[in-house]
Amino acid sequence: MKVLLILSQFVFTLGLTSPPKQEPLAITITNLKNTRAPLKIAVFRKTDEFLKKPFKSYTLEPNGGSSPTLFADDLPYGEYAVAIFQDENKDGKLNTNLLGIPKEPYCFSQNYRPKIKSPKFESCKFIYSAKDNRMYLQLL
Question: CATH classification of 22-138 is 2.60.40, yes or no?
């Protein structure tokens, strides 16, 4: 009887333990020429309107650092794409020339480099998981 009581307490205790903590998605941005202007980071799911309506948005202040890192701890594991720009004039939007070419530094996940037109989700997608939770992106 004692063994059964001890075993039931052990099983009950197991039920109270919390699941392992999820690792945040760590995005390190490199090649900053301006270490004071904020970085605007947009995270998209496949179902979102890529480059128009992000799933999550973040602002990262470099505070003089040349390779700041965002730790996004509010994303579930899954498939995403990231678009980043540095808001050098702090107007909240990516400024472009008459042809639509960005005048402010920018980058995409997978360090995708657009040739003629804006990228598609498929070109920039990545899997965020417990094993793959860190990326390094280089501003253009």
Answer: yes
